[in-house]
Amino acid sequence: MTDVRHFLNLADAGTDGIAAMLADALDRKAARTGWPKGRPDADAPLAGHVLACVFEKNSTRTRVSFDMAIRQLGGSSIVMDAGQMQLGRGETVADTARILSGYCDAIMIRTDDHAKVEEMAAYASVPVINGLTDASHPCQIMADLLTIVESGRALPGLKVAWLGDGNNVLASIVEAATLMQFDVVAACPQGFQPEEEAITRASGRARVVADPREAVEGADVVVTDTWISMGQAQADTKLRAMLPYQVTLALMALARPGAAFLHCLPAHRGEEVAAEVIDGPQSLIWAEAENRLHAQKAVLRWCFGQIG
Ligand code: CP
Ligand code: NVA
Questions:
Q1: 10-46, pLDDT tens digit by residue?
Q2: Where in the sequence is the domain holding 256, given as residue range(s)?
Q3: Is the pTM of this model over 0.90?
Q4: Which residues share a beta bridge with 215?
Q5: Residue 4 forms part of a structural domain
Q6: Is residue 225 annotated as part of the catalytic site, yes or no?
Q7: Is residue 182 part of a domain?
């Protein structure tokens, strides 16, 4: 047992930790309005700290937002693609964890098998952050929660609709629903539903339906994601099964008037979402993407015990 704070899933921070991170992100974002992006926050709370970022999969938002997050907190980063590390030639995750812990103050890793981030955390003596695995994407959902709160919506009692693949991003939304007391209705085609266990764990906060109209009916927020996640084969059968789940203007019209649309990005217009929706007035995707930076700063501060 160690007192190092790892952020592998939202439950690691819990309801109070998430609430504290959201409040901190809102405050810090407001305090640096109009500043150059690279200027550190006035208090530079992580001055001298170095974040190691390890990528076993592609990334734009996670890569740049974590790099900028640690800089704005007064620290610096080393960003590495696993293919250029010995990790890519078979050095174990456990050994990599011990090595990076000797040089750096925290590790963020994006990988495939969730067991790898757990192994990293088990052998690291510094905080480990999950930058996406096949099972979950908690950092993305911190940004989504921040975007929802910032738009003036309260989380408790909110109805969130998910359309499409029962993937890693949905798993973290379902986890957030239980912790922050909102409801998720996910419409997913047969064969592409989330794991039943995750829905059971949500203790009534999440349900899966087949009809996309049922999911969006009266929703405050509508969310989707790519139909083919990183590491998955492009399959025509899957794309065909997903087509009725495309977020269209007609489906958005069944949600609450003015309902928000979210997408973690990258997006595929004409697949999981119609261009008119993602580029339309209900879409909050650009705020959501920018909020990765503000949310990641709060995650880093939580990991170092500065908040929550
Ligand atoms: N949403 C997200 O995680 O984006 P990247 O894959 O670009 O990091
Ligand atoms: N579900 C997607 C999210 C990308 C940010 C994937 O895993 O590829």
A1: 999 999 999 999 999 999 999 999 999 999 999 999 9
A2: 152-283
A3: yes
A4: none
A5: no
A6: yes
A7: yes
